[in-house]
């Protein structure tokens, strides 16, 4: 059990018989007749719905520890995404609606940590950012300009805005949740 005042983003809590991850939690000191409170947002790991709750700082919540197992992404049939345990060859699936923004970044044979609760798959622990190759983008207007952006198509078919200096074939880091460009990855360059 964990007190509401100790909630942190990323924790997994059992609420009303369902697993929820804490997306944000903030403590607000009370004043006058208003008592102190914790305002927290919880995301259902089953449905993806968000709940916002106002809790008393002393409220006890059931924290759940999830097991992590690295699995290999196999394929999707449109309704579900299939993963395989590389050690036991056991396969599991996730409904398409639970994959959310992650599905655009999945590639066959990609290894991803899957979170399990009592042996059942709950969610995937997708990295916050992924590295993707630029397949097409127009040439930059000004080579060293970084304040204006241009459209680029990634290897997964997704379009993002990138700085002018990014070229076709470059590898860039993209934030998974928002789909925004973070940085260009430089490989094999040494500083003298």
TrEMBL record:
<dbReference type="InterPro" id="IPR001059">
    <property type="entry name" value="Transl_elong_P/YeiP_cen"/>
</dbReference>
<protein>
    <submittedName>
        <fullName>Elongation factor P</fullName>
    </submittedName>
</protein>
<dbReference type="GO" id="GO:0005829">
    <property type="term" value="C:cytosol"/>
</dbReference>
<dbReference type="InterPro" id="IPR012340">
    <property type="entry name" value="NA-bd_OB-fold"/>
</dbReference>
<dbReference type="InterPro" id="IPR015365">
    <property type="entry name" value="Elong-fact-P_C"/>
</dbReference>
<keyword id="KW-0251">Elongation factor</keyword>
<dbReference type="InterPro" id="IPR008991">
    <property type="entry name" value="Translation_prot_SH3-like_sf"/>
</dbReference>
<dbReference type="Pfam" id="PF09285">
    <property type="entry name" value="Elong-fact-P_C"/>
</dbReference>
<dbReference type="InterPro" id="IPR020599">
    <property type="entry name" value="Transl_elong_fac_P/YeiP"/>
</dbReference>
<dbReference type="GO" id="GO:0003746">
    <property type="term" value="F:translation elongation factor activity"/>
</dbReference>
<dbReference type="InterPro" id="IPR013185">
    <property type="entry name" value="Transl_elong_KOW-like"/>
</dbReference>
<feature type="domain" description="Elongation factor P C-terminal">
    <location>
        <begin position="130"/>
        <end position="184"/>
    </location>
</feature>
<dbReference type="Pfam" id="PF01132">
    <property type="entry name" value="EFP"/>
</dbReference>
<comment type="similarity">
    <text>Belongs to the elongation factor P family.</text>
</comment>
<dbReference type="Pfam" id="PF08207">
    <property type="entry name" value="EFP_N"/>
</dbReference>
<dbReference type="InterPro" id="IPR013852">
    <property type="entry name" value="Transl_elong_P/YeiP_CS"/>
</dbReference>
<feature type="domain" description="Translation elongation factor P/YeiP central">
    <location>
        <begin position="68"/>
        <end position="122"/>
    </location>
</feature>
<keyword id="KW-0648">Protein biosynthesis</keyword>
<dbReference type="InterPro" id="IPR014722">
    <property type="entry name" value="Rib_uL2_dom2"/>
</dbReference>
<dbReference type="GO" id="GO:0043043">
    <property type="term" value="P:peptide biosynthetic process"/>
</dbReference>
């Amino acid at each position: 059990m964990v007190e509401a005042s100790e909630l942190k983003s990323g924790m997994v809590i059992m609420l009303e018989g369902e697993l929820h991850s804490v997306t944000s939690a903030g403590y607000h000191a009370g004043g006058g007749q208003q008592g102190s409170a914790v305002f927290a947002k919880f995301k259902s790991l089953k449905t993806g719905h968000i709940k916002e709750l106002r809790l008393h700082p002393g409220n006890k919540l059931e924290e759940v520890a999830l097991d992590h197992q690295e699995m290999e992404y196999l394929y999707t049939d449109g309704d579900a995404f299939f993963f395989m345990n590389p050690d036991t060859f056991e396969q599991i699936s996730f409904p398409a609606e639970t994959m959310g923004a992650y599905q655009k970044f999945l590639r066959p044979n990609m290894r991803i940590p899957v979170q399990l609760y009592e042996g059942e798959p709950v969610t995937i622990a997708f990295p916050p950012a992924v590295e993707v190759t630029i397949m097409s983008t127009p040439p930059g207007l000004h080579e060293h300009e970084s304040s204006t952006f241009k459209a680029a198509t990634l290897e997964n078919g997704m379009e993002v805005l990138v700085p002018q200096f990014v070229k076709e074939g470059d590898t860039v880091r993209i934030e998974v949740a928002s789909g925004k460009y973070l940085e260009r990855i430089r490989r094999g360059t040494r500083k003298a």
